[in-house]
Design a protein that fits this description.
By secondary structure, the protein is of the alpha+beta class. Helix content is 22%, strand content 44%. An 8-stranded antiparallel sheet has the order 2-3-4-5-1-6-7-8, with helices on one face. The longest helix has 18 residues. It is globular.
């Protein structure tokens, strides 16, 4: 079984901060015409990022946001490798949050919030709080 997490980022964000965060954790990726795709080597977690144009409403349940989503990321991994995938995703999220000031929410299939920066602070609850 495969698990998907989705990262919805406030409009105005671009791929530069994503690339800096990916480089800082030594992720493997390619950035081409069809978007930014790659994987985290230790957990083999696949990911993809793209610009949402025009920006759309936040889809994650339980988030009432006045901001619109302008960048969407997704992470895909096997359920049996959840712990190592979550560790690498958390590392990416922390690095990403440190490189940009945009609001964002990371959710499990748009249902349960695993991490968010809705104001100034990053909150990384993970699956334990779901």
């Amino acid at each position: 079984m495969s698990i998907s997490l989705f990262l919805e980022v406030e409009a105005g964000a671009d791929l530069d901060a994503v690339l800096r965060a990916l480089d800082s954790i030594r992720a493997e990726y390619s950035n081409g015409i069809d978007g930014l795709h790659g994987y985290f080597p230790a957990s083999n977690t696949g990911f993809g990022f793209g610009i949402v144009d025009p920006p759309e409403a936040v889809v994650a349940e339980g988030v009432e946001a006045e901001w619109r989503v302008g960048l969407l990321g997704s992470f895909h991994f096997r359920a049996s490798g959840f712990e190592s995938a979550w560790e690498e995703i958390c590392c990416f999220i922390r690095c990403y949050a440190a490189t940009c000031g945009f609001r964002f929410v990371l959710s499990f299939q748009f249902e349960s919030i695993y991490a968010a920066r809705l104001g100034q602070d990053l909150v990384c609850t993970g699956p334990a709080a779901s």
